[in-house]
Amino acid sequence: MSHHIVETAALQYTYPDGTAGLKGVSLRISHGESVALVGENGAGKSTLLLHLNGYLTPTAGQVRIGDYALTPDTLTAVRRSVGMVFQNPDDQLFMPTVFDDVAFGPLNLGLSGQEVERRVAQVLETVGAGHLSKRPPYKLSQGEKRSVAIATVLAMSPDILVMDEPTSNLDPLSRRRLIELLKTFKHTKIIATHDLDMALDLCERTIVLHQGRITADGLTEKLFQDEALLRGSCLEKPLRMQQCPVCAPRKKHPVRE
pLDDT category, 1, cuts 50, 70, 90? Predict the structure, then answer.
């Protein structure tokens, strides 16, 4: 299933003010992989994600989604294949009700009213938000908004799920529910996150970005044990991999007589 594959080749991007966002990023993500993108603020994570379905156009280099090089001619096909969940759910929820938001994409695909209703009901049930169908999005909690934003993307039946900081601003219970939900998805998943514990839960592979470049790409657990790598990327070990300060053996000081 080549349409699930994501590739970038020597990808570069410079913002209008001259700031270099990406400096030659090359990667390949295969069908069914779950990959975390980690790095400090400004490392280029969101900039990279926004190239994967054409929200940004590279200054140099290329993006390929499956059999398509991303160009103006292939943009529509690529956006059907790559579903993007933004960091702020309010960027995706703009209709009067949750149903209207989730139905917006399928309606624009030209699906029948009956098929749209079926699809909306199905994806809202999948994310545990079926009871929110008639609610206005602005009255939802952050966790509910996140679930509905994911539903708007799933309603388009994408092959690849791209998410930017999906656990940000979530309370612990909502965060855990989201992680358990994402574990059930068979999509190729690319997740930019500061939540390294979530990355351990969901992603066997991690790509580390630093100042617009890939500095490491490998097994998540192995990379997160590399303290020098993490420190150089302004990151810390996930909490579960840190030694508990209470339980850690204390240094014994010599007794003075």
Answer: very low
Phi, psi for residue 212 in degrees, rounded to 5: 80, 5
* The listed CATH number (3.30.70.100, 3.40.50.300, 3.30.559.10, 3.40.50.11540) that belongs to domain 2-88+159-241: 3.40.50.300
Instruction: Return d(Cα 239, Cα 117) in angstroms, integer.
Output: 42
Residues 6+ apart with CB under 8 A from 96: 136
Yes or no: say if 70 and 14 are a contact pair by the CB < 8 Å rule.
Answer: no
Contact 224, 207 (CB under 8 A): no
The domains of the chain are located at: 2-88+159-241
pTM: 0.88
3-state helix, strand, coil in the chain (%, to 5): 35, 25, 40
In angstroms, the CA 13 to CA 238 distance is 30
Residue 124 · residue 101 · CB < 8 Å: no
Helix (H/G/I), strand (E/B), else coil: 233: coil
pLDDT digits (tens, 9 = 90+) for 128-182: 899 999 999 999 998 899 999 999 999 998 999 999 999 988 889 889 988 998 9
